[in-house]
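Posting here for the record, re: histidyl-adenosine monophosphate.
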Amino acid sequence: MAERIQSIRGMHDILPAQTPVWQRLEAVIRDVMGAYGYQEIRLPIVELTELFARSIGEVTDIVEKEMYTFEDRNGDRLTLRPEGTAGCVRAGIEHGLFHNQQQRLWYLGPMFRHERPQKGRYRQFHQVGVETFGFEGPDIDAELILMTARLWRALGLSDLRLEISSLGGSETRAAYRERLIYYLLTHEDRLDEDSKRRLHTNPMRVLDSKNPDMKSIVEQAPSMLEALDAASAAHFDGLRALLDDADIEYKVNPRLVRGLDYYTRTVFEWISDDLGSQGAVCAGGRYDGLVEQLGGRATPAAGFAAGLERIVSLTDRQNKPAFDSWPDVYVVAVGDASARSAQRLTERLRDQLPGSEVVLGCGGGSLKAQLKRADRSGARLALIIGEDELAAEVVAVKYLREDREQQRVPETQLIALIKAARQRSN
Ligand code: HAM
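Prediction output follows.
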């Protein structure tokens, strides 16, 4: 036998048993986005490497060590997108979506990061992302958070906690950065190697250290929130008031640091304790400087992205039955003439029962073998057409999930019967 080719580490197939869960998730996402008047934008998976370096930041983990970067045949340096914000801003500037306009956009698709794979962390993963442009006030920040809360409710997810913070404007950040570097330098002997390296390049990331030995240094570090400029503090108070009005629970976490450099003012994260070390399900915030930084006119902006694998893993755990999708009907035909009749019947059923799932047992076989396949498909009903039924112009109905007598009915009664079975199971 020839040697098998395996998938790439950290990149997973989504098999047919799982796709109903993904489809349902995508449908719920679409509904929630629609309910808030957001429009879908579809963006390329590959962009110029420079786009990510300039937006996410040269000294972030993503840009320094996680990007899938390669040279195109014509010598351009390209990167598989590690996230969607940069591409969305690039597209908006390129197509004039921002100037004197407001935009509420969303996208969904694969992202790529060369991280060390583990449960909940993959090299190809999927995000739903939302980006808004042209809104300065905290009302849109609150809307983004309410929208995510609605998404969790629609998916039946509980136990997600919200943490929020503010990073202030670029001046606050610059001043805070100096204070933080000073503080960290005074404790340099207690810093680990990673933190020493980040001290001057990206000191905020030191606060994100997972090393337990760094805990007390991080806890005693000066707080960004205390250093906020007046306008950013008012913006943050505004957001908190709106969340309070909406009865959204949150924790203010002054140490909330994000792995991407473009954030200003609001940052937030939804975290689950059910996912082990990769608990961040959704994260985002404001990035008022990014459009200008990428060559557009200054445009306030805010957004978030949620990892779909992590949501799927939570829905698997927290509310499995809601996601199951079974056929309503599995049609079994015994004999050639019956098979032709069965094919016509299934088409008519699909016409008359929109939204139902009708499976034809293609491939034939004995009645017993076909009923076994019908059972395995999860269908509620098996409709059987054998020679006798064909001659009598009836269909035999076998209840696969209910304790009911098999019966034979003319086709005209089938629809009502299938609908009734469906209602009983809901
Ligand atoms: P991020 O925090 O890098 O933000 O990613 C957002 C979410 O994507 C994470 O909370 C997590 O659920 C998921 N995620 C990230 N990396 C992986 C991975 N390797 N495997 C599985 N899931 C992962 C962003 O990407 C920003 N673009 C969010 C944003 C949009 N901010 C403003 N607008």
